[in-house]
């Protein structure tokens, strides 16, 4: 039963995965052209949970910004999620505190 569920989930996720593959290849090409190697690309892909900031991060680093400034910029850009979550408080009011809301993300 689990194998069937995993297979169905995988097949349903293929269109989304296709988009990530194309964007990932674009990021890899951009980073390579900027002179960054595989370790930097992997680190940015694993540590930055905001796809657009990967592209912006390359531009910032290439333009002379430090890694610290790039990290602070990433945090500031992603602070918008705090406001998104505040607007959702009423929607999830009354749910158990231990509910993992990541399953409800669009």
- Principal-axes geometry comes out as flat
Percentage beta strand: under 5%
* Beginning-to-end CA distance, first to last residue: 26 Å
From the structure provided, what is the oligomeric state, counting identical versus distinct chains?
single chain
Mean pLDDT across every amino acid position: 84
The number of helical segments is 5
Q: SSE string, helix = H, strand = E?
A: HHHHH
Over the alpha carbons, how many angstroms does the gyration radius reach?
A: 18 Å
Describe the sheet with the most strands.
Answer: none
Q: What low-confidence regions span 5 or more consecutive residues with pLDDT below 50?
A: none
Structural class: mainly alpha
Helix content: 55-70%
Topology, number of strands? 0
Task: Outline the structure in words.
With 106 residues, the protein is an all-alpha fold. The protein has 5 helices and no strands. It starts with a helix and ends in a 19-residue tail after the last helix.
Layout of helices and strands:
Elements: H1 2-33, H2 38-47, H3 51-62, H4 67-78, H5 80-87
Summarize the structure.
With 106 residues, the chain is mainly α.
